[in-house]
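for the writeup, i need someone to sanity check this before i put it in the appendix. the sequnce is what the collaborator sent (i think, or maybe the updated version? ugh). structure was predicted straight from it, no edits. if anything looks off just tell me and ill rerun, i have time this weekend
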Amino acid sequence: MDDPLLWSSTDQERALRVIARWYDLDFGSMTDDVEMILELASGRERVLELGVGSGRIAALLARAGHRVTGVDSSEAMLESGAQRLRESGVNVERGDMRCLDLDERFELVFFGLSTFQHMLRREDQLAALRSARAHLVQEGRLVIDWTAPRPDDLVPTPRALQVEWMRESDDGRWVTKQAMQELALVRECGSALDRSSPIAWITYQYDSVENSGSLHRSLARFPLRVNLSTGEMAGLLAEAGLRAVEWFGSWDFDEPGDGDRLIVVAVGAEEAA
């Protein structure tokens, strides 16, 4: 499949089932983004994570004393973190963040680690933002963390697989992860992708050496919205009834442009007026 806009929820779940097996080995040791969310959540009891995944962030928030609800549509990711989520006391809701209707409102709602970039279409992005807005209390805060635009986001030539890490899993297997990003090319006349809203195909390849010495290879390929700027995000927020009050370029609260992340803190538009 070369057209990312034909990507289905079934396709997504198939890719996530591969990723879920190695997700904690890949991201489990990350703490910088968690520390930022913990600081932004300070003084805010009720927290909602949209795209909770395996609960890497949500569980630590819950253990820090917050009442945390995590939402995700992926059965594979929720299964991978089920024990962690259960033991930390996170309330888990399986559902679609674009059409969420919980009975509770939250003082902090956040999209962690590039979750928002899985929303490929503008209408999906707006639906997710409006859903987040609807679940904020008055004076609540929305936080979105995504990958900052890079010069090679728009390079049409596919990049070769690059080794990202080699690590030992809990069961003693050695696992190597390679990754590649490939810009989804403009389609034929009449249905061209908007080059101002580029989408890339991301490939993850995991090679694990089994205890028997045999090599097992698994592949996950999925589309991701790339090159999302602060200007475009500001426009999306405004259309969804939100307004940015702070921008950061890293998990260390650097200015935008000084890091490889973009993080926005937003409130309801009427509260920021």
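The chain has a mean pLDDT of 93. The chain has two domains: 31-149+228-272, 151-225.
thx in advance!!
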